[in-house]
């Protein structure tokens, strides 16, 4: 971890195609198809189709195969957590990020200098993936999706409790729960199971393939069934998971006086929850909130921090106030939503 | 406090009336005394304690995370109480969170200098929702879309009582309403109306149309004009004088001119109007006086209030509600004839031979300030609620305008997958360019089938999206019905429609031929046409 006089920006820097590692000749989570990519996790703004070669965890590669048709044309290099491989002059290792199944931080070492590209991460326990591993480093690249002190995500159990309380109060209504297909969906199912909810959970058709993939990776989702498989069910009192876009869609009309529940870190702010049309906002996020972000800076102890996608201003301000050399890093192809 | 906070939080996101009722009822059933009583007081606007100034909250926030981060946070959230609730990190050593009763009772006793320390202790002990609810209570009434009537209805449901049974005794009760809950949930006797100026639940009418009238015997009914003000009750007994809205809300403070003019004991049903000289002013003038806690001398002068009486419920210590309408009306007329009371007058009966004659009278009555006719059975007792049969309202035909659909918003609950709230506009010319100016918003008047059609039309003609709102191509003409029109400084078009609803979808009409703002301006009532107040 000797920093010496090597400028980290000289070997890892943003380009219009994405974050480029020059001595390794690869991109991390590039925005377009490239010759060689290191992929931190399977979400659409990080994993894109069409790379000639992709290195990722076996789980992330499986997710990419389930989502992209032309994966056979990509040379796939699986790298399990903790294993190391050399690309060009750079040692690459993947460490758990605690974000979704297969999610990893890319730990890059070049001439004794270590940069950690954390991708998306969170610190609270998630039954669908191993917890975030703090890796001491010279430069830490952090996300900043929820980097404002107002984002203090409550415990998952209290949010699931809110959902179950609503189901008990309105037993004749269908609870439509808006979740992202990858990660949030399966985590919410696991959280419901952990809270003792053992009834059948219904799924919008687009959620089914990734649920099956999670089950294949040993994550027990209990009794789940696609909505389309039945014509008799009235869905009264049922919990139905669907992508957020389907809640406003004509698809949702089959349900009895539905309660629109939305699971997202944005739900903590009332104006945002209203904007999304949520009647039951549930603050369940796969991204670190403010206390997790600030705690992580302390845990990795990096003297330099680059802040990417989200509300960089507040986190840069905070990091500088505790003596860290922090700056914003603008990457192509990152969007705010999808959290 | 936590349970009450969860209730406020759920209510703030729930739009449907029945669901709101269920939420309040569930809370009132589970919460202990006195918490549930204070909760009922908060929901009915009856909580009274010194409130915290925004500067105190801002100071707390800036001390907590520094002025820069606080500014960024407040800027993002846009609400001071919510920002502070979100950024605060609770202290695990702070002990159990306070109950609602503890919060209210402590604040009622606390001095101004004690408040910050107390507040800090509570913030440390509450979760985020609890902090939000506490800070909302402290900075003013929590706005969660619950009327005082709805909260009372939920309480009434606890004991399987009609809400009017609560209204009748409400103004003799005070928070935390222990005797009320003992009666509703524990079989104790109903609290007595021992306070003066008690409210008596009003009798309401059903709508009727011309065809249905033919099933009724015209000789059994009395007709009155339906005045375009707000329904009120004047209640004076035991030295207490009060003016109530139809829903039982005490609006005396906003109408000292009426209350000061009460020199009698009795309970009367009537219409609150604003009067200019001898003429009834447009409803808009009355609105200047509504929803105010206090009223300035200037307002009293500019918008003098007046009550037109049409029924008497109690007089000279006698309850007249069981008597027939004719008898009550005769009592009212005789009482009115005793001495002149300039702030009060009588709503006269409209004589008619048969329904055809009455229809002609209704048709000929074009004056502003009259919404139509009331029909009351000559023998009808004064019954609380909306009994089917004795009283009818026969409204004037609505005004119509052809408007162009501009925006559609998603509904809630059953309608959450439908674009069901429609904003529409009329044409005007600005700098030689023709453009639509929004004139109103309506979310009913159409059939389910029409809603499905409108929803599809909106989806197929979207040009822009703003959260749950879609902007559409300016092509679809909606015939909008409304009961009145007034000038308004708040609307871009300078106009406000009263009670607008979608009357017909005019697929046949080109948007360019829809009405103009000028057409609508011509519908504005002129002052000359106003109703003359009858001299008593």
Any key phrases for this structure?
heterodimer, A: Metallo-beta-lactamase, Chain A, Rossmann fold, 2 domains, 7-stranded mixed sheet, 6-stranded mixed sheet, 8 helices, B: alpha+beta, D-amino Acid Aminotransferase, Chain A, domain 1, 7-stranded antiparallel sheet, 24% strand, globular
Tell me what the structure shows.
The complex is a heterodimer of chains A (339) and B (536). Chain A has 339 residues and is an alpha/beta fold. Chain A has two domains: 8-150 and 287-328, Ribonuclease Z/Hydroxyacylglutathione hydrolase-like (Metallo-beta-lactamase, Chain A), CATH 3.60.15; 156-282, Rossmann fold, CATH 3.40.50. The model of chain A has no long low-confidence stretch (mean pLDDT 93). Chain A has eight helices and 19 strands. In chain A, 52% of the residues are buried. Chain A is globular, with a radius of gyration of 21 Å. In chain A, strands 7-8-9-10-11-18-19 form a seven-stranded mixed sheet, with helices on one face. Chain A has a six-stranded mixed sheet with strand order 1-2-3-4-5-6. In chain A, strands 14-13-15-12-16-17 form a six-stranded parallel sheet. In chain B, the strands form four sheets. In chain B, strands 3, 4, 5, 6, 7, 8 and 9 form a seven-stranded mixed sheet that branches. Helices cover 35% and strands 24% of the residues of chain B. Chain B is globular. Among the domains of chain B are: 206-392, D-amino Acid Aminotransferase, Chain A, domain 1 (2-Layer Sandwich); 399-521, Nucleic acid-binding proteins (OB fold (Dihydrolipoamide Acetyltransferase, E2P), Beta Barrel), CATH 2.40.50. Chain B is an alpha+beta fold and 536 residues long. The A-B interface holds A 148-152, 154, 158, 162, 165-166, 169-170, 247-253, 257-260, 268-271, 273-281, 291, 311, 313-314, 317-318, 321 and B 6, 10, 12-15, 19, 22-23, 26, 65-66, 68-70, 72-73, 76-79, 82-83, 86-87, 89, 127-128, 410, 412-414, 416-417, 467-468.
């Amino acid at each position: 971890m000797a920093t010496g006089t090597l400028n980290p920006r000289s070997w890892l820097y943003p380009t219009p195609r994405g974050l480029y590692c020059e001595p390794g000749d690869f991109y991390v989570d590039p925005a377009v198809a490239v010759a060689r990519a290191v992929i931190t996790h399977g979400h659409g703004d990080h994993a894109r189709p069409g790379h000639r070669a992709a290195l990722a965890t076996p789980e992330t590669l499986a997710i990419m195969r389930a989502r992209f048709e032309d994966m056979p044309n990509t040379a796939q290099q699986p790298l399990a957590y903790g294993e190391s491989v050399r690309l060009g002059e750079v040692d690459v290792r993947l460490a758990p990020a605690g974000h979704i199944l297969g999610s990893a931080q890319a730990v890059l070492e070049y001439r004794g200098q270590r940069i950690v590209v954390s991708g998306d991460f969170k610190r609270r326990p998630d039954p669908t993936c191993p917890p975030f591993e703090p890796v001491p480093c010279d430069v830490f690249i952090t996300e900043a999706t929820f980097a404002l002190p107002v984002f203090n995500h409550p415990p998952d159990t209290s949010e699931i409790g809110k959902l179950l309380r609503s189901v008990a109060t309105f037993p004749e209504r269908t609870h439509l729960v808006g979740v992202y297909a990858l990660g949030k969906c399966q985590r919410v199912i696991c959280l419901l199971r952990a809270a003792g909810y053992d009834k059948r959970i219904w799924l919008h058709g687009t959620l089914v393939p990734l649920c099956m993939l999670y089950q294949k990776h040993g994550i027990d989702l209990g009794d789940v069934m696609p909505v389309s498989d039945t014509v008799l069910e009235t869905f009264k009192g049922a919990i139905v998971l669907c992508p957020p876009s389907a809640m406003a869609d004509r698809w949702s009309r089959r349900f009895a006086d539905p309660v629109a529940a939305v699971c997202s870190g944005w739900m903590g702010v009332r104006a945002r929850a209203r904007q999304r049309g949520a009647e039951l906002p549930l603050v369940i996020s796969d991204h670190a909130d403010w206390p997790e972000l600030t705690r992580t800076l302390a845990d990795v102890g990096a003297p330099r921090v680059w802040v990417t996608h989200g509300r960089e201003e507040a986190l840069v301000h905070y990091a500088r106030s505790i003596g860290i050399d922090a700056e914003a890093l603008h990457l192509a192809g990152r969007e705010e939503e999808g959290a | 406090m936590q349970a009450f906070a969860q209730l406020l939080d759920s209510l703030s996101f729930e739009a449907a009336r029945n669901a709101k009722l269920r939420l309040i009822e569930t809370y009132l059933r589970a919460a202990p005394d006195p918490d549930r009583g204070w909760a009922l007081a908060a929901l009915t606007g009856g909580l009274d304690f010194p409130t915290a100034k925004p500067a105190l909250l801002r100071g707390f926030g800036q001390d907590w995370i520094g002025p820069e981060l606080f500014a960024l946070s407040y800027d993002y959230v846009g609400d001071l109480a919510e920002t502070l609730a979100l950024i605060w990190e609770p202290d695990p050593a702070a002990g159990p969170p306070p109950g609602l009763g503890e919060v209210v009772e402590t604040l009622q006793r606390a001095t101004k200098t004690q408040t910050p320390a107390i507040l800090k202790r509570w913030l440390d002990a509450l979760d985020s929702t609890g902090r939000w609810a506490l800070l909302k209570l402290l900075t003013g009434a929590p706005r969660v879309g619950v009327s005082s009537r709805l909260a009372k209805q939920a309480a009434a449901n606890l004991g399987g009582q009609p809400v009017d049974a609560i209204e009748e005794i409400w103004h003799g009760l005070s928070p935390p309403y222990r005797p009320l809950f003992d009666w509703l949930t524990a079989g104790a006797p109903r609290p007595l109306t021992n306070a003066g100026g008690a409210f008596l639940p009003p009798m309401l009418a059903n709508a009727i149309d011309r065809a249905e009238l033919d099933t009724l015997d015209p000789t059994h009914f009395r007709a009155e004009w339906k005045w375009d003000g707000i329904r009120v009750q004047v209640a004076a007994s035991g030295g207490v004088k009060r003016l109530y809205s139809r829903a039982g809300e005490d609006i005396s403070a906003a109408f000292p001119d009426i209350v000061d003019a009460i020199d009698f004991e009795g309970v009367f049903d009537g219409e609150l109007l604003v009067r200019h000289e001898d003429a009834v002013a447009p409803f808009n003038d009355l609105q200047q006086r509504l929803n105010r806690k206090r009223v300035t001398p200037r307002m009293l002068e500019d918008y003098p209030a007046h009550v037109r009486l049409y029924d008497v419920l109690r007089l000279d210590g006698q309850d007249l509600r069981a008597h027939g309408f004719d008898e009550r009306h005769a009592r009212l007329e005789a009482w009115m004839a005793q001495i002149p009371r300039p702030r009060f007058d009588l709503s006269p009966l409209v004589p008619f031979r048969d329904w055809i004659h009455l229809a002609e009278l209704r048709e000929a009555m074009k004056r502003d300030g009259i919404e139509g006719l009331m029909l009351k059975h000559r023998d009808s007792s004064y019954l609380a609620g909306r009994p089917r049969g004795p009283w009818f309202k026969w409204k004037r035909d609505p005004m119509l305008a052809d408007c162009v659909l501009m925006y559609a918003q998603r509904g809630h609950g059953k309608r959450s997958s439908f674009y069901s709230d429609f904003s529409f506009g009329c044409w005007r010319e600005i700098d030689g360019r023709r453009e639509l100016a929004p004139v109103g918003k309506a979310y009913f008047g159409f059939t389910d089938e029409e809603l499905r059609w409108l929803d599809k039309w909106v989806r197929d003609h979207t040009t822009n999206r703003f959260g749950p709102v879609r902007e559409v191509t300016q092509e679809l003409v909606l015939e909008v019905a409304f009961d009145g029109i007034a000038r308004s400084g708040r609307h871009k078009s300078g106009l406000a429609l009263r009670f607008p609803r979608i009357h017909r979808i005019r697929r046949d009409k080109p948007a360019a031929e829809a009405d103009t703002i000028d057409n609508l301006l011509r519908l504005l009532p002129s002052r000359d046409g106003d109703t003359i107040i009858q001299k008593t």
